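Re: weekly structure request thread

Next one in the queue (547 aa):
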Amino acid sequence: MFTSTFRLLRILYTIIRFRLDVFIPFELSPWYIRYSLGLVCAIGRQKASENKGERLRLALESLGPIFVKFGQILSTRRDLLDDDIANELARLQDKVPPFPGEVAQAIIERDLKASVDELFAEFSVTPLASASIAQVHTAKLHSGEDVVVKVIRPDIEKTIRQDIGLLYTLAHLVADLSADGRRLRPVEVVTDYEYTILDELDLAKEAANTGLLQRNFVNSELLYVPQVHWDYSHRNVMIVERISGIPVADVEALNKANVDMKCLAERGVEIFFTQVFSHSFFHADMHPGNIFVDVSNPKKPKYIAIDCAIMGSLDDADKNYLARNLLAFFQRDYRLVAELHVESGWVPKGTPVHAFESAIRSVCEPMFAKPLKDISFGQVLIGLFQTARRFNMEVQPQLVLLEKTLLNIEGLGRQLYPDLDLWVTAKPFLEKWMSEQVGPKRVLEEARKQAPQWAGQLPQIPNLIFTALSQMSHQEERMQAQTKAIEDLSGELKKGRKNVPFRLLGLVSLGAAWVITDPASLSHLKEADFASMGLFLVGLYLLVLKP
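Done, posted below.
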């Protein structure tokens, strides 16, 4: 708790130090905030606004990797930010202040258990680029291959765990304050983010992710993934092939190379949807610092992806609901959008579909007054999110990475080609994918996937058939026995019902015999005693002996 409190105080100090209050819209705040804190912050605010983008970048850098990641995400949304702020935040992608190269060299030698001279023919102590979690150095193997060496920042895990602890504290606070806070599921979101960012600290996992992404796009014309040198990859060090390409954010260089920017933007969208729906494994950190362009064929440019530390995936149910939601939205089938939200469990089962449909229509219909190319997926998500608050829609942690990546892709695509129509590119792909989920092709694909398992079970089929037939035979015998028992019981019940009057008469006879018997005359019988004995015998017969 002390650590979280200290970290929170440092964040507040950073906000004051860098005058980040210029980003607070005091004019929209309640009057008591506007005329108290707002008046205090107004002192020197005009001067502070002159270079607010630079100060925001410096503040995020000083707060550490989690905040740098936040700035990286913001930097791709130029449709939401002023150019000066976006340009400053873009520097967070690969221009974070580096740590000393000698420290990186010591980490390499410690992890790989060999000196730099033994490992490389050449090694540059000066880093090529530096990011929030790691930095990279250029090198050459003794075989002559050019490589880059990625090294995790020293002691970075301690800082990240402190920030995660603070986020958990804030998440629990938000969840406890209101129903809206619980609906946002902040604790689950932080847990998901903790898992993701801690994975970034293990370069062995990143190497494995890189290998899988490379296999998914082997011989692809859309995306190239550099080769991992597995013998040199460990938890804190990773060595991969050095690629050459133009950074995707360097639009001026791309234009000089006569790159078809429309094709480049559309291919980026196609890569995203291919990863999500066809591979179920997508690069979830696609900010411009991790993307380069191979311009050897400028009319058909190819993307180059690096830094596969953060990857996402969706199960078949989420993919199906997501595709159907997107198609229904752009077809203006708001009824289906509402039904899918209820069916998937994203909103409570008791949600009135007609009311939810009406609310979605009121938010989304005005968007279609604009051309499709001008519709922002980011604005759509924000609008739907605000609408769903009324219907207790919970945040889906498994979709957080996907939403973030979609926002990155849209922002990047619009930066490359402002007239990018995301829907024109995405619709054919989604329709094709949906058609492949039903019909003969899907059946054959599932049969192909299950064939190895079926082949392994094939030798067991005769025994399984024999066991099943034996069980059926025994089951039939048991059924016959049960049927006979039921028939016998039924007969007994019927017989019992017929004998009820006789049993009652027997009871009456015994009772009468008891009444007329004189205990004092048992030593010398009288006529009444003979009558009593007769009644007793009749009663005994009717109660016990009569079948």
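Confidence is low (pLDDT under 50) at residues 519-525. DSSP finds 24 helices and eleven strands in the chain.
Next request, please.
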